[in-house]
Amino acid sequence: MSTYWDAYPNFVHNPTAPLRQEFKLLAAQCGWQVDGERYKREWGHCGQAEFSHHFGRDDNRLAGWQAMCATARVEAPDSIKQCKQVLRTTVWINIFDLMDAKRTGRPVKKHASANALRAYTRRTKKIFPKKAAKDNQFLRVLLVEVFV
Description:
The chain has helices at about 20-30, 35-55, 60-70, 80-90, 95-105, 115-125, 130-135, 135-140; strands spanning about 90-95, 110. It is mainly α and about 150 residues long. The longest helix has 19 residues, at about 35-55. The chain is globular and about 45 Å long. The mean pLDDT is about 90.
């Protein structure tokens, strides 16, 4: 399975580094301006591809849901429905932080509430593209309204 990074063969990718750190290095190499449209678009594509790489694309596979639970450090139930319920109601984690936990092996940063996650997401600007998240059943369970 190809990854986002495969499209940039001259970039030396470190798969265990935090995603934003790696993306910023790539953006600098490609000359993308941090506040530019290309940077924002590519950041979204990178996040989508990286998520699919780590958790899969088939939301009908229990293994993907259990991998998300394991990375979120919650008990992984034996059904997709139960995994969704656990992820939707017991943990508040940023999607990019979930991917970083998978990449780095460090524990995912958990928040005490949806409001705490919302404030953190705005402060760090770790905002996953809403349309992409809504179109992905895995990601949909992690969504919180960021700008209310």
